[in-house]
Write a structure and sequence with these properties.
The structure is a homodimer. The first copy, chain A, has one domain: Orthogonal Bundle (Arc Repressor Mutant, subunit A), CATH 1.10.10.10. Chain A is 63% helix and 6% strand. In chain A, helix 2 packs across helix 4, helix 2 packs across helix 5 and helix 3 crosses helix 4. The two termini of chain A are 32 Å apart. The structure holds a DNA duplex. Chains A, B: GO terms for molecular function: DNA-binding transcription factor activity.
Amino acid sequence: MSEGDLDQALALQARITAFVRAFGLHQPDRTPCGTPVPTSEAHAVGELDRDGPLTQSMLGERLRLEKSTVSRLVSQLTGRGWVRRADRDGDARLVWLELTPDGRRAAGELAVARAARFAALLRNIPAEQRPVVIDALTALVDAAAASDVTGAARG
Amino acid sequence: MSEGDLDQALALQARITAFVRAFGLHQPDRTPCGTPVPTSEAHAVGELDRDGPLTQSMLGERLRLEKSTVSRLVSQLTGRGWVRRADRDGDARLVWLELTPDGRRAAGELAVARAARFAALLRNIPAEQRPVVIDALTALVDAAAASDVTGAARG
DNA sequence: GATCAATGGTTGTATGGTCGAACTAATTGG
DNA sequence: CCAATTAGTTCGACCATACAACCATTGATC
């Protein structure tokens, strides 16, 4: 690896660190979008809203969370009345999760808040640079997934 | 805001969400770089290593953390023997923080691990795209800072 | 100079988050 | 029919954060 590569790695690190802080990704009890909903719950509801009924392990895979964590998360969501644990014909071990009407409403509101937050973010990026930023993030995500040692092995 | 803008906001949201998950930013007790050091401690040590002695409030400002959180964080670090609370001439309210020799060593090791992790990330991005990605992240960080409502007002 | 507001930190309390290990129940394969 | 696997639950340990109440110091005002 050359000097330039190291410089790039350091630059990348600084940017990502800065972004995490600036975007408020540290607050567990609020989404960065300002909604007073715990982040993890927002993520879970979002997945369920987008991709219909899921089992807990499917959800855990998407969120990259351990099954015990998912179990608790789901309990919180059912307690909130947003998610229902529905039994289905077939494998009786599986717990199928689906949003309740309340959950769908909440998911919608969260989506709106999120869109507003990201729209605000976009407004602060020069218009001509926006597609570039999005493409760059795509590359970054792919790279993260490809270079992920810990996450894939865990769980 | 046009339709295209909304699409872009959604795309941006999806990418960032995906990155947070893929990069393992959810683990509080490990850095995403694989070191068994709590993330917040790693951040604090990094700041102190880079920018010399800091007061607690200065550190909190950089990390975007509330003063009580910083106080506890610093206690952990002193307990670990990485940070020293040094008194200095001048304002007696201020607590100046500096790394111990052990702390400097730890900071170095963390920096190495971090660099390795980010280098791995970079390797999975086509070489010609790397500068673009870094520039894009810069724009993103600036935008996040500019569009930050919650963070600036908090604390 | 005495008083009182502002500033920097600490401690207490309440949430929220994550994992790994031990355990149960259901399924699948020999 | 029993063993290994798979899906989830519960428990324990740890980490992260904020807000409020409190203390000490400082600095400004009178």
